[in-house]
Amino acid sequence: MTTSGCLYVQTNEDQNSVIHFARGEDGRLTELERRPTGGSGSGAFNYRADPRAIILEGAQRLVLTPDRGFLLAINNRDNSVSSFRVGNEGKLTLLDVKPTGNAVTGLSGTAKSLAYASSSGTLYILHTIGPEHVRLMSLDSEGTLTPRPETYTAVPPDKPGRITTMLTLAPDQRFVLVGSSIDEAPTANRDGSPNLFVERNGKQHSIFSNDPDPDGLAVFSVEEHGALAATIHPLA
After folding, report:
1. What is the pLDDT, as a whole number, of residue 33?
2. Which string of DSSP letters, residue by residue, matches 197-224?
3. CA-derived radius of gyration, the chain
4. Residue range 16-45, pLDDT digits in tens
């Protein structure tokens, strides 16, 4: 995640932090600071030993508000979101940390992707595991996060175990789109590699979304105050 002359990345360590780099004219990066988020990242995972770790993969874990006044970061182990003020020279000040509202039932939570609508001050938070895939928060002018009661399911009724990967906001802020990767968490083969097929109706069936069912993308229309309308699963 970048702002003018700055680059922000997340460590996703047990004690999660955001690293702030200065970006030189020659493209060189210089670390300036590390700011704890006040939340927990997923930490280290052995993907061959535990193929289920794929549920922690995601994109857009960091989001800058369009005015570059705030940086928002997700903490997926404890299902929380942190807000930072972006000050002079891009320096960060932690302002708030709030839980998404989804409980952590295993070794880690599943919050993984963020999108922010400046038109309504609404933050959309995607979780890998449903049924409450999408949660909402409001962000005020002081950087305070307020969890909202609305929740949304982002998978078809016949695929309740689908693993969602990221959400994004359309440029005109009229739609929220949710992508997915697989229809259920893979089991392990004898050698530890993930088994990417399951048996359905006596036949081998890929666990990947859109293979063969073209329903891997969920689209929500954005209504007043940032609320979302019913899900549409278009051909993808």
Report:
1. 95
2. EEEETTEEEE-BTTSS-S--EEEEEB-G
3. 18
4. 999 999 988 888 999 999 999 999 987 766
